[in-house]
Amino acid sequence: NVSTQLASFVGESIEKNIAFNEIGKLMTDKLAPEYSLIYPVIKKSPMIITTCHTGIGSAKQIQSLLEHSIPTSLHYKIEAVDLEYLKKYGDSNSVFEQYDVKAIVGTSDPHIKRVPYIALENLIAGDGTSVVKTLFPDVKDMALLKRINNYLVENLSVERLLSAVTILDATKVISSVSDMMTELEENTGIRLTNNQRVTLYVHVSAMIERLIRNEPPLVYKVVSSEERKQGCTKIKRALRNIESSYGIKVDQNELNYLYDIVFQL
Questions:
Q1: Where is the PRD domain (predicted)?
Q2: 45-159: CATH topology
Q3: What fold does the segment set 166-264 form as a domain?
């Protein structure tokens, strides 16, 4: 809207035969208008963000897998966003202004406080509907939640998922991690659950690639104990072939994280 003062100023300038470009300059210099942007109040559509430590390409692969698992009737939008962009700008970017972001799914946590992060391995473990409830907090129909959970388990097979999120040979990684788990079971006398196996497949493959790329090390604080030390030693022993095959070294923080998957999950 043009204010009365501004219209009057322009009219007087025209009467004085001042050139239009000069009028524009004078308006800018002497009558700097006050303005504010008012966004329409609308209900934001729900969104799930996907991200991956290997880049936007893999995040889009995860996006595609989720889109094939979520009923269109829920009207959820799935959007792939670069991990470094999320870490840098947090929720101060246009995606969070335009959509009601329910969760972030990926292989590395961007640490955005007001949005829950769901590790990819937890999503595909298929252990009940607790994770699905986090993704769809407004859905109260338990039958629908169970159906979505089943879709996710069917569509997000380990091999398909690893092919999407890592540049490594998925078949070789699966074989290496499988051998590691077999040795670990023999050394510890435990029997890993399906949930633990899926979690280890995804986490160890992501760990291998992070270490190959020399990415910043995992920070994982725990309370040390003799039991934990012994468990980590057994995990380290089971990882020998992986360390040798991929030319990596698994540090104590990584071992502690794996310990909690194997002995605490």
A1: 168-265
A2: Rossmann fold (3.40.50)
A3: PTS-regulatory domain, PRD (1.10.1790)
